[in-house]
Structures are given as structure tokens and as C-alpha cells.
Design brief:
The protein has about 325 residues and is an alpha+beta fold. It has seven helices and eleven strands. About 30% of the residues lie in helices and about 20% in strands. The protein is globular, with a radius of gyration of 20 Å. The model has no long low-confidence stretch (mean pLDDT about 95). InterPro entries: DUF5996.
Length: about 325
């Protein structure tokens, strides 16, 4: 199977917009049916061998333990309870409104009561329209959905390899449904005092100093897939630091800067995987150096922290 297969945003935009709203709806169920974790780590999806999963949830809220999985091989939504019962329905042919109805019906049939707080899209152009009224977004191309999952899976493993090099506090590799990206975040441990007007989502996400790396599929602000990295708060002069490969660049973003490597540029290299790893590493070192992190203390070659075991990682 091709590493980093092509998926131009223009080719699958309609499927992406529909799928994004499907995932937001399920993600909001996850939000209320799971125990809260620092920096919202309880909320994102994780990758599976067939798609993405909420992971087990319930129990703490009085519900049976259950999961909701997107299967991008057979193109089903699968709602399953811990006792082995499950209900599935096809993703193909659903509008956002019908997807909402069938998801809630499946949960009810399994004895699960699920709340959907703010039952409309988050930070999307139609954020004032409830999911229940969205019959506009109803495109689902199975080939594009499967390709999306393939790319998520491949990028996830690159991010896991990058994550292994760091021994400090760091996030899982996870897929955020609100921004539709896959990311991994490293923490210095320093507290960040947010301005009083900062919204609750941002306050929790960036309550500590971070350097984050990831990948997204493109949107109206940058209409193509790309690998990215950023620091929050951003240290002064970061945008002047060199990053690799030469095709990568710092671009202005929300008052700061984002390191960007276009997906198609990475694909053009003989070894795209190593190219992306080098991009992440160079961006991390640029930000960590400017922010005066103790990089040596956080070093974990091949996921090994005991120096006597370095070189014996297999």
C-alpha cells in the first residue's frame, strides 16, 4: 500500500465536510460520557485497524460501558456495549440529520442515554444550525473515506515514532474532531497564565507550555493537506529559526507562526517518512531552543530512558 497516498482537498471536500460533522456529533457524545482528562485528552478519537474509535466510555455517568466506532472498511457506524450487543448502520447515504437520528436510536436500543451538549457544529460555518436540521451535508464517498483513514493510520505511526524520542509529559497521538487533525503534544512543565478573556477550551488546552506537531487535511484557510508544528506560547524569534526540509516554512497564524510542510512536498521525497520525522524534529528543536527547554533531560532515544539500555531498543 502506498505511503501517504494522494488526497487533494478539492477531490473529497464534500465527503470531508459531511464526515467532519458526523465525527463532531459522536465526539460530543464522548465529551459527556467520559471522565475528563487534562488538556481534553478524554475527547479525541483514536485510530483502529478499521477506522477510528471513541474508546470505551460510560459507567461513570450511569450508562453501560459502550464504544462508538467508525468502520472505514465496511463503512458502518458501530455502537457496541460491553455485554457484546451492538448495532450498526451504513455511513453511505446519510445526511447529518439522519446520522444523528440513527446514532441516538442505536444508543437508546442498547439502553444508553447520551447527551449532546450544544447539538450543533463547533467552529464551522454552520455552527448556528443544529445537527438535527442539517440535510445539506450528505455526501459520503467510500473510497475517499477509506483513503482518509489510511493516511490517518500512516501519520499516526510517524507521530508515535516521534513521540518515542521524548520522556517528559506528552499527549497520546490522537485525532481531534473539532479541528479534524491528528496531533501529538510535548510539555515543558511550565505553567502558563492565560488572559481572563480566554475561552474555556483554550485555557485548558494551553494551561502549560507546549510544542505540538501534527497533520491536517486542509480547510478554507489552507486548502491542502499539510504537516505542521507550533509552540504555545510562542517564543520570540521562532519564525527566524531554520527548519527542514527546505520546502518547509514558517507561516503567520492567529498572531503567531506555524511551521508547515505541504503533504505533496513530503510525498515527493524518496523517503517521505524520514522527511516528516526530520521536519517534526527540526521544528521541535527550533521551538525548544528558543523557549530554553532542557532538551537533554527529555531525550528518550527509541523510547529508552535508561542510558545503559540505549542501543538495545529491540
Amino acid at each position: 500500500m502506498e505511503l501517504f497516498p494522494p488526497l487533494p482537498l478539492t477531490e473529497w471536500r464534500d465527503t470531508k465536510e459531511t464526515l467532519h460533522r458526523f465525527e463532531q456529533l459522536v465526539g460530543k457524545i464522548r465529551l459527556t460520557s467520559s471522565s475528563r482528562r487534562n488538556h481534553w485528552w478524554n475527547v479525541p478519537f483514536h485510530i483502529t485497524g478499521r477506522g477510528i474509535t471513541t474508546r470505551p466510555m460510560g459507567q461513570a455517568d450511569g450508562n453501560p460501558v459502550f464504544t462508538i466506532d467508525f468502520d472505514f472498511v465496511d463503512h458502518q457506524l458501530v455502537v457496541a456495549a460491553l455485554d457484546g450487543t451492538e448495532i450498526s448502520f451504513p455511513l453511505l447515504g446519510q445526511s447529518v440529520a439522519s446520522f444523528r437520528r440513527m446514532t441516538l436510536e442505536a444508543l437508546t436500543d442498547l439502553g444508553i442515554h447520551a447527551e449532546i451538549p450544544h447539538p450543533e457544529p463547533f467552529d464551522l460555518p454552520d455552527s448556528a444550525r443544529p445537527f438535527s436540521r442539517d440535510t445539506e451535508h450528505a455526501t459520503y464517498n467510500p473510497e475517499h473515506a477509506n483513503r482518509y483513514w489510511q493516511i490517518l493510520s500512516q501519520v499516526a505511526l510517524v507521530l508515535e515514532e516521534f513521540a518515542a524520542r521524548f520522556s517528559g509529559k506528552s499527549s497520546p497521538v490522537h485525532h481531534f474532531w473539532h479541528t479534524f487533525d491528528i496531533a501529538h503534544t510535548r510539555f515543558s512543565g511550565r505553567h502558563v497564565e492565560q488572559p481572563p478573556q480566554t475561552d474555556a477550551v483554550t485555557r485548558e488546552a494551553y494551561s502549560r507550555e507546549v510544542i505540538s506537531v501534527g497533520f491536517w487535511f486542509g480547510d478554507d484557510s489552507f486548502p491542502e493537506p499539510a504537516f505542521y508544528a507550533y509552540a504555545a506560547p510562542e517564543p520570540a524569534g521562532l519564525e527566524t529559526e531554520p527548519i527542514r526540509p527546505e520546502q518547509a516554512r514558517w507561516v503567520p497564524q492567529n498572531g503567531g507562526h506555524l511551521a508547515l510542510l505541504r503533504y505533496d512536498d513530503a510525498r515527493a521525497f524518496a523517503d517521505p517518512r524520514s522527511t516528516v520525522l526530520d521536519f517534526y524534529e527540526s521544528a521541535y528543536r527550533a521551538a525548544a531552543s528558543r523557549a530554553e527547554w532542557d532538551m537533554e533531560a527529555f531525550t528518550s532515544p527509541h523510547g529508552v530512558t535508561d542510558q545503559q539500555l540505549v542501543g538495545h531498543h529491540r
